[in-house]
Design goal:
With 194 residues, this protein is α/β, with parallel strands linked by helices. Helix content is 33%, strand content 17%. β6 (110-115) and β7 form a beta hairpin. The longest helix is centred in the middle third of the chain and has 15 residues, at 60-74.
């Protein structure tokens, strides 16, 4: 993608990050941005910014742990943390509620999204009560794969329709950004919102 922070690339007159913020904000009580980049790049978004609480680029689990520990400290009334990846900004408007309903129906510990026969472990709902367990797994056991940790718990995968387009379409190449622009235009009824 040419280097730099992918989340700051433009899409539909906004950045990928702003698209994700706009999609996530109605679904959650508070937002925090987990990034290890220069925080000054993100001050315009007016969000709390938290780097990984684990050093050494520990991957997505470090970001999840950061969110869980932030919620325990800064939003103690919260029992759940939803995680989103900024390079898939076309998420369903009912993502969090769908995950929560599935957890309750299955009496599960956590839930992640799925679509088109694939699961999306970063688009998930995590219980704050497991923060200490995750810290132990990441720091003492050196665990890095999301699926390796979630396999220890009752996790439900929630299928979201990939028709007409996969809501978890991931932007990894310049041509993906062009495709996302087209999908965003279709979603908004022919006009790109900005």
């Amino acid at each position: 993608m040419g280097g730099g922070d992918k989340c700051l690339l433009p899409l539909g007159g906004r950045t990928l990050l702003q698209c994700m913020i706009d999609a996530a904000r109605p679904q959650v009580g508070a937002l925090v941005l987990n990034t290890n980049s220069d925080p000054d790049l993100f001050t315009a978004y007016r969000l709390p910014i938290k780097p990984d609480v684990i050093d050494g680029h520990a991957g997505p689990l470090a970001g999840v742990l950061t969110g869980l520990e932030w919620a325990a400290e800064c939003a103690p009334e919260s029992s759940w943390v939803a995680s989103f990846a900024c390079d898939a900004p076309l998420i369903p408007p009912d993502l969090v509620s769908g995950l929560r309903q599935a957890i309750e129906a299955a009496d599960a510990d956590m839930a992640c999204a799925a679509s088109g026969g694939r699961h999306h472990p970063v688009f998930a709902l995590w219980p704050v009560r497991l923060a200490a367990d995750l810290r132990e797994a990441v720091t003492r056991e050196g665990l890095r794969k999301v699926d390796d940790w979630t396999s220890r718990y009752a996790q439900v995968r929630v299928e979201f329709s990939a028709v007409p387009n996969d809501p978890f379409f991931n932007i990894n190449r310049p041509e993906d950004l062009a495709t996302a622009e087209t999908l965003l235009t279709r979603r908004s009824g022919g006009e790109v919102s900005g």
